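G., the chain you wanted modeled:
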Amino acid sequence: MKDLSIYFQPVEKQEAIENTLGSVLYSYSESNFPELNSKGIAFFYVPEYRNGNETYQSSFNDSYRNHLYSMQKGQNWNFSIYDLGNLLPGSRIEDTYFALSQVCAELIKNSIIPVVLGGSQDLSYAMYKAYEELEQLVNILIVDNKCDLGSPDSELSASAYINKMLMHRPCHLFNLAVLGCQSPYLSIYDSEIMDKLFFDVIRLGEFKSDFKIAEPHIRNTDFISIDLQSLKASEFSGTEYSEPNGFDNAELCQIAKYAGMADKLSSFGIFNWYPAQVSTSNHKQLAQLLWYFAEGYSQRCGDFPVGTKKNYTKFTVYLDDIDHELVFYKSDKSDRWWMEVPYPPKEGVNFERHHLVPCDKSHYSNALKNNIPNLWWKTYQKLG
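Predicted structure as tokens:
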């Protein structure tokens, strides 16, 4: 593995109490950068705000670590946990993007999930670029109250970074989903682009009605980016968190746990964290988000149906309207569902990871009623 220590500043050494997270993780303290020699999770903080609210660029507070280190280790946490310290900004913001991309790519290649606590959400673009080095088509899920698309000529910023993903060449984005979108913040332009590209918008109201609606989308993603400003104001203190409606803290913890459980997911980011604005309780909440991601990771069961499917129950539904069979698989391990979408082979393009789409039993039930699942149709259009 490349030497990643050059990008990081060590953190203050914490007192390790038996059976707490602080007693089992490998942290970069003093001059001892951890040896990244086994798969697991690597946390680190990137206080970069120049393309967001630059007034916070000099504010630095990582006291969330005190709370994270004091939390109890989960029962089945049989994996390595690293705290790489703080990836401090470069002299130019492009230097920060480059460092973050390099670190994420190297960790992913070595089966270590980068869990990035960010400054502004434009850092998501740098994490996306890590997959360019991996030469891998990816699915991205954005947890946000709006689509940060931006116009084609918008400068890269915390509110306009998805356009850079779409326009970057070569493009490695297969699917984008936005979870928690609110209609007052969804422009006609955003809706048209998302529909045209067969991307997914899961509105906040849909999630509130049934939070399990998010699970297949999370299970289908490689990289999740959470905007903490999607929390409602009553959940987080400070003028930067002022939305009257949004997620509550428990819901974000549930999303983080689902993300950890998703076998496909290989990177995770939490952004628009303004530590100078928030209370001690919010530092604890942030630590809990990280803890629940680790708890979800401990529950991965490796049941993504690749290769042999002998441990899955196969269901076939014939649809008269399109004269086609839909194939579903249910895992005998977890009772989770997948839907098979046929794709034409294209030279130089590998869609193998994308033609088995996570779904739930309702998609199968609707197919039995001769209804083509919207998820199947969108995926088919992208594969075609």
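The mean pLDDT is 91.

Shout if anything looks off.
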